[in-house]
Write a structure and sequence with these properties.
The protein has eleven helices and eleven strands. It is α/β, with parallel strands linked by helices and 328 residues long. The protein has a single domain, classed as TIM Barrel. Helix 5 links the parallel strand 5 and strand 6.
């Protein structure tokens, strides 16, 4: 399997997934300094008419702070960062945001909800690589045909927008024909699960929900607490809230006055990812999360969470090696 140079020196084989609203420069910089890829959706850089372009501020700050850190720590440089582009017709900012990311030399591009050749070409124009998230093998083929360098397999149990396939089945089918960079998303919230993702054939784990419960995350305290207090049985799969199937915290749905076990199915054609889109008032605090939340026990600084992952990863590897040695 081929891992691109830009992703070859991570502390852990881990990409922090871009979290809608929640991922911000503070979280991204902390993740990168801790040695894993930090990311954010371009649309998180909200803007108001007449004000400077917020995405430019974010990209400038991240580049400058990571450059400064790398100069001070040449032996342990920060990991690269990634920007997520929503490649959907409702995203009126896409063309401009892509241009800005190319201008600021974003090293890793994550594309979602649409594979477009011109977006991948823009990533390549500044020396970046592109990874497209997919929920099945059909979309995986399309993404690579459109010029993506790598794939993010979004399997059952992932937080936010998620597929319904088992990670075992999805990774196996993709690896039958694709040997490029592959990340796996779906119920991963521990170092043990990071190692398991590699054992199945992925190069990287892709973790989002656990980073909601970090000090740097742009999430209200109630959201962070609900992540800490919840388990896999507290997650519901629905397309009601965005038109795309995803996983959400049942208690947040109940708090909005709805029955989480009896949600209606939304019309997929109504999904909208424009910058100014708003949820109905009753949905303002419906919170996404994956089935791996049971591994999250406390709110930590992002660096401490990565340390926890690293310790668990090393322990899992030692435990596995011991088991294999006994079997041998």
């Amino acid at each position: 399997m081929s891992v691109p140079e830009v992703l070859s020196k991570l502390r852990l084989p881990l990409i922090g997934s871009p979290l809608f609203i929640i991922s911000n420069p503070d979280l991204v910089i902390a993740q990168c300094k801790a040695g894993i890829v930090g990311s954010f959706p371009a649309l998180n850089a909200r803007e108001k008419e007449g004000e400077p372009i917020e995405l430019v501020r974010w990209l400038t700050r991240i580049n400058e702070e990571l450059d400064k850190y790398n100069q001070a720590n040449p032996d342990t440089p920060a990991a690269p960062y990634a920007v997520n582009q929503i490649v959907h017709r409702s995203n009126g900012r896409l063309e401009r945001d892509v241009e800005l990311c190319a201008k600021h030399n974003v090293p890793v591009w994550i594309t979602s909800l649409g594979a477009q050749e011109w977006v991948n070409e823009a990533a390549h124009s500044c020396g970046g690589i592109s990874m497209h998230d997919v929920i099945n093998n059909k979309f995986a083929h399309k993404a690579i045909e459109k010029g993506a360098d790598g794939l993010i397999a979004v399997a059952a149990g992932a937080g936010g927008h998620a597929g319904a396939l088992s990670p075992f089945a999805l990774v196996q089918e993709i690896r039958e024909w694709f040997d490029g960079p592959l990340a796996l998303s779906g119920s991963i919230a521990s170092g043990d699960a990071i190692l398991a993702a590699q054992a199945m054939g992925a190069d990287f784990a892709y973790i989002g929900s656990a980073f909601i419960a970090t000090e740097e995350a742009n999430a209200v305290e109630g959201y962070k607490k609900m992540i800490v207090d919840s388990g896999a049985s507290d997650i519901v799969y629905s397309n009601l809230f965005t038109g795309v199937w995803g996983n959400y915290l049942k208690p947040s749905i109940a708090a909005a006055g709805m029955d989480p076990d009896n949600l209606e199915v939304s019309d997929p054609s109504a999904m909208n990812f424009s910058e100014g889109r708003t949820k109905p008032k009753s949905w303002k605090e419906i919170w996404g999360a994956g089935q791996g939340v049971g591994s999250v026990k406390e709110v930590l600084p992002a660096a401490k969470l990565v340390e926890r992952f690293a310790a668990e990863y090393d322990a899992a590897k030692a435990r596995l090696n011991g088991t294999l040695a006994k079997a041998g």
